[in-house]
Amino acid sequence: MTLTTEARIETGNASRYLDELCRQLDARSHAKPELGVQVEWTDAAGTVDFGWGRCSMRAGETMLELQAEAPDQNGLQQVRELITRHIDKVARDGELPLTWRQDGAPIADAHADRRDAMRGFHRRMRH
To answer: What is the domain extent for residue 22?
Structure first.
């Protein structure tokens, strides 16, 4: 059985963010080929396969849609966290609002407060 979660980011730059996100992950996969990460993308869609989980992405005119999947909850959480961190890196014009949902409901994240505090810290350090 595969578990999935989804997120949607409203932005007029969905294709650009998809491209930057995939390029960033592809560069990391080439820097560490032993991890076996596979990244494929076009202007409208992309897939990052970690071997133990994956994320599919679709860019529309006003929205970037993400779907994370993994065989267990721990793997799913790791895919979400990894993608969220990389989204934060490509969002130069401020944080992109990203809420992962499972069965239509927002996912409670026990590490969200600490992670949000660290994101705020890193944003302040960049400016």
So the answer is: 3-126
Q: From CA 27, how far away is CA 46, in angstroms rounded?
A: 15
Give the integer Cα–Cα distance in Å for 87 and 96. 8
CATH number at residue 112: 3.30.310.50
Sort strands 38-41 and 101-102 into parallel, antiparallel or unpaired.
Answer: unpaired
* Cβ proximity of 53 and 68 under 8 Å: yes
- The values of phi and psi at residue 13, to 5°, are -115, 30
Condensed to tens digits (0 to 9), the pLDDT of residues 72-127 reads 999 999 999 999 988 888 876 556 778 898 877 778 655 554 455 555 544 544 44
